[in-house]
TrEMBL record:
InterPro entries: Secre_tail. This is T9SS C-terminal target domain-containing protein. It comes from Tannerella forsythia.
Amino acid sequence: TVHIYNVHGAMVKTLFLSAGDHVEPLPSGVYLVRVGERVTKIVVK
């Protein structure tokens, strides 16, 4: 399960992806992506 949050902490999307799947395009901005216990910051231009 993938959880995507904006920089304000609001959940933007929850996705159920398999290995190798891609996330649909997001609007420009900074996001935090959580997969399990791991959190990564991404920037969409």
